[in-house]
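Sequence, structure tokens reproduced for reference:
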Amino acid sequence: MTFKNEIIRKFDKNINLSKMETQKALDILKQAILLEKRGYSFYSTVAEQCKDPDVKNIFVTMAVEETMHVKFLSEQFAHYDKTHSFLKVTVPKDADDASDHILSDEVKSKIAAAGFEAAAIGAAIDLEKRAIEIYAGRAAATDDPNEKELYTFLSEWEKKHLKILSDLDNELKEKVWFDNQFWPF
């Protein structure tokens, strides 16, 4: 093989690898957008089913945050599709995670009494874990600093949701255990 042919072969190989990497990045962004849309649909449906307005507010807030994630990811997708590069992450001004501020003891007691909402919290935990797995995995796998920052940011945002839901789930379990005298002492 001549030197010229070797250069052409390596160039073609790099182009193919670049196309594969671009498609992989786009596929992951599509998967992330779909996951967030499913989260929105789930939280919206649960909110519609809630009778108590305070409990409903929890799920409405989570649904709103999922729409912020979709918007954020859609902007990244459109930019990447055109330029094959990720935007530098700028934290959305409304990303202060309002869900931190919606759980009072009164709301927790209302959820404890409502089996449907308690079951929905368990399902929501699974959704959040899946999102964290995808985002953290992609952040670890990429060498692109903007992509790493994007997925790290999203993973941390989802971890906040997971913590809220997990803490609430644990409190609900303890209340049920205590009320039913499941403790060994």
About this structure: The chain has one domain: 3-178.
